[in-house]
Structure formats: C-alpha cells, structure tokens
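Thought: the user wants the 3D structure for the chain below. I'll pass the sequence to the structure tool as-is, report back what it returns, then summarize two notable features.
Action: structure_tool
Action Input:
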Amino acid sequence: MVTKLRKNEEIPAILYGKGKGSTSLSVEAYEYATVTRGHGQNQVFNLVLDKDESNAHKAMVREVQRHPVKRNVMHIDFLSIDENVPVKVSVPVKFKGEAYGVKTEGGVLQHVLRTVLIEALPANVPEHIEIDVTEVRKGQPIFVSSIKSDLFKVLTPGNMVVGTIKITKTIEEEKAEADAKAAAEAGIVPVEGEAAVAADGTPVAPGAAPAPGVAAPAAAGAKGATAAPAGAKGAAAAPAAVGPAGDKKAAGKKPEGKKPEGGKK
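Observation:
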C-alpha cells in the first residue's frame, strides 16, 4: 500500500490529536511541497479527507520523515489542533545584520543553537525568529533571553547561548601563545630589554625547550602579562507569519670535558 502511494507521488501520513484517535491518510507530494515552500512547516493546514469539505481538519506538522540520501519526504505526522488553544513548537532562529565583532574586530559569527521551543496560538507561530546581531562584539554571547515577543512565549531556558562572535587568531599569534606557554611551564622568565634566561642563568633562545631538571627561578622585577578576551544586545523576534490553510625542542649543550694533559709514560 505504502509503495503504491509513493509510486503515485503521494506521501503516506497520519492525523492524530487529543481525544480524536488517529487517521491514516495520504497527501500529494507536489501539493505539499508547493504549500510549504516559502512558508515552512509551522503553519496551519486545512486537511480535507476523502475530498469531503465537511470532513476538514485544522492541523500542523508534528514530524516529517525524509529519505536519508535523497531527502524526499517519506512520511508526515499531522497534529489536529484547535486554533484557540496554544501549541508548543520548535522554531528556527536566524541572525539579522552584520555583527560589529565580525565587520570591525575580525571575528566569526558562530551559530550555537538553531531552534528554540515556543508556545503560541497556531496563527501566531512564526516561520522563524530573527535576532539582530549588528551591535554584538567579539566574545559576547547572544542569549535566548534576548528573544522578545508579545505573540508567543519562549520555553527554551533564557541562559542558553544562541550564538557568539568567535575570536580568530593568526598563525603568528598562535605561535607566540604556544612559546609563552612553553616558557611559563619551563620556568623561563623574560626580563624587559634582556634575553630570556633559565634558572641556571643560561640564555634561552625563543622557542627553545628547557634543559631537563631546570627549576623555575624567583626573578625579582620580572614582568608578566595575561590576555583577557574582550567582553549583548538581543533583537526582537520577527512577526509571526500565518501559513496557508488548504490552498496555501633544542636541548642545552653539555659542556665538553677536557682531556688530561700529558701522555702515557
């Protein structure tokens, strides 16, 4: 039966709801693709069963199963709804604008959380939620709590991070940090204006690994520095779109020993 439906370019589906049981049905693949194109799946459908307008049901897509390779729709779960009763759905999150941390500070915008769970009346469920990231600087997180709307309630915890501006480093910066870390672990302390020295007073070339057994010196007046990352404005959510219903190491050198003077007698 299922194979026959798919050969006829129809998608097997099921309609269920609270206190309404479940009904098996099928929808035309082309019609479903047309209705959802540009609107997404978080919309209200008008399902007419057996081509009988008196047997119509308002529904929303609860789950879509796709082919793992071809990605075509294999099965759809429809949830029968009451337009006056709120529903809980996951909505995609998108970023709007060019972040200051990207444009000016050379960072990279990293998307951490791509959907959030909301509760709203079916007609108020948006296709997606937009967050304006124009003023976001590098190292500054964008929290779920920045999403505000009078049309729906956000159920995802507000302290979860939606995105952030990741700090990028050059090869030279990464090498400098690695050298500094290696020097700190070896107890090599650079003195301003002088070459770095090990605990035994031996000069150490930049990037060189410490000789075994060298302990960290207690250098008076040595200067050190630690780098701290630079420290959000969130944006209001986009208005909800109503979906269509029905028609819609170098090692230290070991000193060489001297040979004793004089030869054998």
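Final Answer: Structure generated. The CA atoms of residues 104 and 137 lie 9 Å apart. The domain at 84-217+226-241 is CATH 2.170.120.20 (RNA Polymerase Alpha Subunit; Chain A, domain 2).
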